[in-house]
Amino acid sequence: MDQSQLIADIEKYLQGEMNLEEKANFENLRQNNPEIDQLFVECTYFLDQLDQFGNQQALKKSIRETVDKLKQQGIIKNSPLSPKSKIIYLWNQYKRTIAVAASIAIIISFLSSSIFSFFTNVKVNNLRPLVEKIREQDVKYKKLETKVNQINTSDNTTPAKSKLESNFRATGFMIDVNNNYLVTNAHVLTEATHHLVVENNKGEQFAAEAIYSDNQNDIAILKIIDQDFKKLAPLPFSIKKSTCELGEPIFTLGFPKQEIVYGEGYISAKNGYQMDSIFYQLSTLANEGNSGSPVINKNGELVGVLSSKEESSEGVVFAIKSYNIFSVVNTLKKLPSFENIKITTNPILRKTDRVTQIKKIQEYVFMIKGN
Amino acid sequence: MSTIEQDKLLLEGLAIQDKASIETIYKSHFPMIQNLIINNKGSMDDASDTFQEAMIVLYQKSLDNEFQLNCLIKTYLYSVCKRIWLKKLQQIQRFGLQADDFEEYVAIEEDVTKHEKQQDRFHIMENALSKIGEPCKSLLEAYYIQKKHMNEIAAEFKYTNADNAKTQKYKCLMRLKKLFFAEYKHEN
Fold first, then answer.
1. Residue in chain B lying closest to A68 (CA)
2. Which residues are within 8 A (CB) of B121 and not within 5 positions of it... i.e. 6 or more apart?
3. Is B38's CB within 8 Å of A82's CB?
4. Of A143, B105, B128, B134, which has the most beta carbons under 10 Å away?
5. Nearest CA of chain B to the CA of A107: how many Å?
6. ipTM surpasses cut 0.90
């Protein structure tokens, strides 16, 4: 008997599509022919597996469709922030291997009278991100202070909007005035596990949320979600797509303290720490709290985002090259809920003096706080 | 309606792959799993994958006539996800799961082991399907996965009638069966 005819019969039998006579004949056949009976058992098992497999594939498809729908509705966030970056996982995972490799490297480099410098492997911790972490003591002190204030002002009938107790401070700046999207460093957001606010130079705080974080480029996008926030005019600065020249003078605006601070410097190298081409090396002064500060050239163009400094030497600061912002924006554009992200600029600062530039740009620079 | 009654309805819905039920389960329980995975060195994708696995385990359970959920869906999914993710972490050698153990657990070891064995078989099935070539692959998928009617398939694949399509389907099925058992016996 032809096997595919048999499998057809078996399926018909299992699906209950045989009439009584056919059924009787078929059962008879099975009984008298052990070989066919064996095939029957095998085919039944196989068809059952195939059927279950089919059901599962269908279920997976339904789940996928549900997830897409929920993501589009914003019920599930596209990329919430994981508390630790992938790089750290890899580091943790290969810590031991790297330690062994590094020690061998050190020995070899001593022995071979350091023809090659293997030391770079060891100095992983030489880079310091510029987020200011506010110490626990200070937080406690502030709590006390607010309590005292509350007592002092207890008879006051209009309580001011309560301010967030922050455990870090960094900087960010606006890139999309229509949607109120801000850029900062991805490492900044690892500090914010509960709340996130941005504060302008007038001390007004607005609630914000992290919507995207690209750990590889160390760029994150925030959105101001506070309804009290008034829309700003188009960006007075443009974002430079090409790279800067060595020696080009730059300035930065950031929040290493509770008020905005201006800093000056120049591009001192075209690559960052350990020749990382995402970064520029700047010669300027930067401190904790400067993470996410815009780096601007004399034409009022944004050329970089300040991110870290070398721990051991003063004035060696690293900034992410501005074109990386575009690549993040382009990635975001492909996601369903961010199609309308757009950088609208009205660069009016090209021929103005520095004081005017700063005055204009500082409206677009925000302190980022959270806990 | 109490949560238990609601869960029972959802489970009945899941058994027939009702979209609204799938959505409700996802909406109510995914955030909890997302937290669990992301706080334990996983990514958003890991969370989605793990949750999907757990949904499949629950689905298999829901098909079982004798199955009665003796705990809430929430507890069941949490236990299954925790078990799946723990194993995955061990496989990639990131030890130590720090779950906030405020959630209850139920015994799901047997269900998950059963599920894992089934996944192995399905993996063989998937491999076999990818090996048989066209038009066999599409034809079988249309019937057994998309559950299309034979008439519809005949029209789609341009067979003159459903019987011809059926004959072809059985020939393909024989080949698939052969491939499946060849690997299946090899694996066992």
1. B23
2. A49, B184
3. yes
4. B128
5. 29
6. no
